[in-house]
Prior knowledge:
Chain A is about 10% helix and about 45% strand. The first copy, chain A, has 2 helices and 12 strands; from the N terminus they run ββββββββββββαα.
Amino acid sequence: MDIEQPSHFRPSKGDFRWEAVAHQPYKQDGSAPFKDISRQVLFHEDSLGCELRYFEMDAGGYSTLERHEHSHAVMILRGQGDCLLGDEVYPVKQFDLVTIPSWTWHQFRATAGEPLGFLCMVNVVRDRPQLPTEEEFTRLMATPAIARFLERS
Amino acid sequence: MDIEQPSHFRPSKGDFRWEAVAHQPYKQDGSAPFKDISRQVLFHEDSLGCELRYFEMDAGGYSTLERHEHSHAVMILRGQGDCLLGDEVYPVKQFDLVTIPSWTWHQFRATAGEPLGFLCMVNVVRDRPQLPTEEEFTRLMATPAIARFLERS
């Protein structure tokens, strides 16, 4: 699969890439619910019970709008942008911390004309994300701040 | 205890401090096995099963030389320095990744005349660290590279 066997010391190569860490750019087509985002699994160890991943969007890119039972712990590592969390939109910048609770809609957007990258800590065992139904999307769009967020690029 | 109730969005205040995150400087006396180090628990959620902590040493400071059954996943977040891991000493810099396996002696040292800070991901449930016995310390010191590391400040 997509998980590298880690050595104990994996230096940064600069530009938010690492030795022995696979860089997985996501391709999008017209129907994809994300845009210009890549994923790198920095740590995956069953003995720890958790993974640490690094996601990065190009300027104008965004992560999938989704929710799930498992929670996420996020630290912005690069750049700035915006984050939808439940009914709130937060401007985010390097080193800000975002906790994504169970069943909370969330999306990150690189709205500042620069890449936006974040660390995401999750449990190794987790449920699959849900995408919004048409009805749920309509409900989200009824909040003006969320509609403005979802229409940005 | 030392764990803040997290809000969902906790911005960075700059200088590696965060809103609503307690900064815990460790005091040392003559017998302390660490020097000039502080700890901030960024995430602690039982639903995640993991914690993410940020440790920072002042220039010349160091973390405890220890080992334990649980493993650590570390990302250097600030500055540079050196890291002892088992029988190896690695120079470390911002964003380098270090995996600390079970029962492996480890210590971080801010040897570069600047602060050294790192993220450390651990399981919420973990055993207490062991310090080296006099005999184990003597064995470590028998390796010249480790002796040079342990005598630096």
